[in-house]
Amino acid sequence: MKYFSIFAVFAFFLTSCTNYKEDLLTDPNLCKTENMSFAADIAPILNNSCGTSDCHSAGGFAPGYLTNYADIKTMVDNGKLLFRAGETRDMPPSGPLTDCEIEKIRSWVDAGAPNN
User: Fold this and answer.
1) Is 77 within a domain?
2) Which residues of 15-24 are buried (b: 16+ CB within 10 A; e: fewer)?
3) Using CA of residue 99, residue 81, residue 48, residue 45, what is the dihedral sign?
4) Is the dihedral of CA 9, 11, 12, 17 positive or negative?
5) Which of 23, 95, 100, 108 lies at a CB distance of 3.0 to 4.6 Å from 31, suitable for a disulfide?
6) How far is Cα 113 from Cα 25, in angstroms, rounded to an integer?
7) Distance from CA of residue 29 to its chain's centroid?
8) Is 11 exposed, middle or buried (0-12, 13-18, 19+ CB in 10 A)?
9) Which has the minimum average pLDDT: 28-32, 49-53, 84-88, 109-113?
């Protein structure tokens, strides 16, 4: 019984010590980027992160609005949306979008930024 207890403790420590990085443990299938919908996928990201009352909205301090499709499409067409949110990652000022959010936006833009 003594050896079993020592083995059990050793096995516990051996299995609890890993050297995996969190990125490697993330399931890549959790971030679905196929068939992105403006209404269901893109608008919620931009409304929550960019079109708040003090940023890209009426009365906000940031240039351009990100509160409706036409305004967002303008930012897509001039390249500012992906450049600021996806390349320089300096927007939004509260912190960058997640990699998954950026990939969803990139996928939607690559599909022609449809109003769907």
Assistant:
1) yes
2) eeeeeeeeee
3) negative
4) positive
5) 100
6) 31
7) 14
8) exposed
9) 49-53
- The torsion angle over the Cα atoms of residues 31, 34, 40 and 42, rounded to 10 degrees, is 80
What residues make up the domain containing 66? 27-110
**pLDDT digits over 6-54, tens only?**
544 444 444 444 444 344 455 556 899 999 999 999 999 988 887 665 7
The type of residue at 78 is N
Residue owning tokens 């269901």:
40
- Model pLDDT, residue 101: 94
Residue 9 lies in a domain: no
- Phi, psi dihedrals of residue 15, rounded to the nearest 5°: -80, -20
Which among 44, 45, 50 is positioned nearest to 66, based on CA atoms?
50
* Alpha-carbon dihedral sign for residues 101, 35, 83, 23: positive
